[in-house]
Amino acid sequence: MKILITGGCGYLGKTICNAFIDAGHECVIIDTAADKETPSERVSLYCADISDSAALKNIVAEHPDIYAAIHCAELSTVSLSVSNPYEYYSLNVVKTMEFFKNLHDLGINRIIFSSSAAVYDNVPGYMVTERSPIKPRSPFGRTKYITEMMLKDFCSAYNMQCIALRYFNPIGADPRSRSGLVKGSANIISRLIRILNCEENTFVVSGDDWDTRDGTCVRDYIHVWDVAQANVKAIENFEKAFENAGSEYNDNFLSLNIGSGVDVTVKEFIMAFENVTGEKINTRIGPRRQGDISGSYANIRLAQKAIGWKPTYSLEDAIFDALRWDEENGDR
Questions:
Q1: How far apart (Å, rounded) are the C-alpha atoms in residues 228 and 303?
Q2: How would you classify the pairing of strands 218-219 and 264-265?
Q3: pLDDT tens sequence across 42-86
Q4: Residue ranges per domain, the chain?
Q5: Which of 94, 113, 196, 230 is positioned for an S-S bond with 164, CB 3.0–4.6 A?
């Protein structure tokens, strides 16, 4: 199959592309940063904005056999969404809406949407299902929820089909070191690696007065390669996913939690990082971040049922792969 991937030059998009290539598929990437050498003969790169209808029309004309689109292009830093919501709503909602309408006009009606666990409210025990209460606390989370609702309406009105994959906290790198986080990322592993490399002195924990077992936020950290495999499974099982999910999913729109299914506090994550590296990390307690919640982790049974996916990598695997990526690509 041939898959269109937006944001395919970014951390998630590039890893997802690699997973599809490994599975024998072809990828067409549209990204404003698509000016690098094509990584494979089964990858076509186009440098364009997702809302550029003329560029998309040209891409589809050159690749009329595109089976589905995976939308990864996004802004995703919670704290920056609070300080600069305009940029987040502009890309994550407005341009995204134009992209999906243009896809439909060009006859591409199967969508995988990269959504987020940031849409959920706090729940007792922190484990969320796809039916858990929705209450995004940041502009980033709200852009994801708004886009899900918009896509649900598109599916109803325009006979489109969408699977929204609600990612929890992707970490790590491609196990073959073909993709990983760029230098300077705000991802927790990147921050810890900068301390390990003596580029920073102290890891600031965003509050230790949350209502959790050790006072720090609960998160579900999932290896980015498991996220990529979820996209492959969603595409390969797209036609049966809605039927597999159950009779309550009869409106051509399906949301699936994509997480490890394991709850880990920030303190526990730091301990795991120290155990893998054998190094002690200096920490201090800082204020809570705007837009944060005390925590959530994924119930992943519906994803297993609908698309036959489950994670295979551990937290330690993700830390190890991130460390290897940094060692081999630290100057990027």
A1: 14
A2: antiparallel
A3: 899 999 999 999 999 999 999 999 999 999 999 988 889 999 999
A4: 2-175+222-259+299-312
A5: 113
